[in-house]
Structures are given as C-alpha cells and as structure tokens.
Amino acid sequence: DIQMTQSPSSLSASVGDRVTITCRASQGIRNDLGWYRQKPGKAPKRLIYAASTLQSGVPSRFSGSGSGTEFTLTISSLQPEDFATYYCLQHNSYPVTFGQGTKLEIE
Amino acid sequence: QVQLQQWGAGLLKPSETLSLTCAVYGESFSGYYWSWIRQPPGKGLEWIGEINHSGIANLKSSLKSRVTLSVDTSKNQFSLKLNSVTAADTGVYYCARREGGRPLDYWGQGTLVTVSS
To answer: Is it true that the peptide bond before A8 is cis, omega within 30 degrees of 0?
Structure first.
C-alpha cells in the first residue's frame, strides 16, 4: 500500500495567515492526489484534484502543487471557515489511501 | 446537482452485519466508481472499497474477507455489507463518487454506526 504522510499533524494560525501543509507519498504517484477540508460533523469537501487543479467553486486562496512523491496545499490568507481538518488522498493505485490529517486551529 | 443520500442501521451488536445503502440523484450511475469510506471517532479517513456500475469491485485487502459491495442500477443505488462487526468497526461511514482519473468528489452525509453489546 502507498503510505501518505502528512505534516504537520496540527497547526495553529490566525485569520489572514498563509499556511502550507505537506503530503509525502511512499512511492511515486504522478499527480494522482486530491486535497480535502473536513469541518466537524461534516463530510470532506474536495478542494484540489490532480495535485494542483482548483475544484470549481473553491476560493482562489487555496492552491496545490507537487508531483511524484511530494505535495503541498497552501492557503494564502486564512478565513474563519478554514479552521478545520485537511486530508490528502492518493488514487494512483489501490488501495486508495489518505494522509492522517492536519488539524488547523485558531491561534 | 449530484446528491448522494445514504441510510442504514446505526446500532449493531458484535458479530452482526453492517448494512448501508447509498442512493445517487442528479447524475448517471454509469461511468463512475462508487465508494465507501469510514472514519472512527476522532480519527482519520479509511477507504473501504469501490464498485462500478457493472459490479466490478476493488476492496481494501484487510477488509476483503468481510466486505460485500453491490449495485442496483435500476434504482441508482449501491450498498455496503460488512459482516462480523466488532467495536473496532464503530465510526461514521460515508459513500462517495469517484470519476475515473480523479479523486472522490461528491459525498453522502455520513452514517454513524456504533457496535456495542
């Protein structure tokens, strides 16, 4: 199985801050990666697919980059609704695997 | 607008069978992969498996012996059965859609399943 290692596991920041979350794959996955935001009690919402393509309707403050084994999600200016948990997901090979999550909290 | 609506029993005893169904509205059933994901309380997401409209399934190997996925194309529904449940199977179960070459996009609302004697 491909292991997805996300870092950091938690992060404290303020509204307006720029934050970056990293996901590393245990083997190359091309750009077969998505990023999700999950608010408490809700299903995850896809933000990014193909590593860097912004999902329709998602604000442009979200961006993704990377290919192969290292990927990043950047939020350029945090908004109150962004304080949530973020997950990466690889779908290059079965089984589909998720990173362990990054909890973004208000500082 | 694509919507996934799921339902099933929320309280089970150990050794019973978990059974969930997900209905798809607003989109063709064919041409996609229909997935199940679960999330233990306070923990991360775990992919269980997926099935296409033809009934071809891919399952997580550690769950394969207990999981059955099925589709009912006449109703635009797909289902999950997980037998011999234990407390470790407690969590929120989600259904979701995956388009070929892209990760999961539309998700159901989630169903909390609790296994307790």
So the answer is: yes
Chain A CB contacts of B105 under 8 Å are 46, 49, 55
Residue by residue, pLDDT tens for chain A (107 residues) are 999 999 999 999 999 999 999 999 999 999 999 999 999 999 999 999 999 999 999 999 999 999 999 999 999 999 999 999 999 999 999 999 999 999 999 88
From the list B47, B61, B105, the residue facing A96 with the nearest CB is B47
CA distances (Å), origin B15, targets B52, B56, B82, B86: 28, 27, 10, 6
Q: Residue A50: which of A100, A19, A18, A89 has the closest Cα?
A: A89
- Alpha carbon of B77: minimum distance to chain A alpha carbons (Å): 19
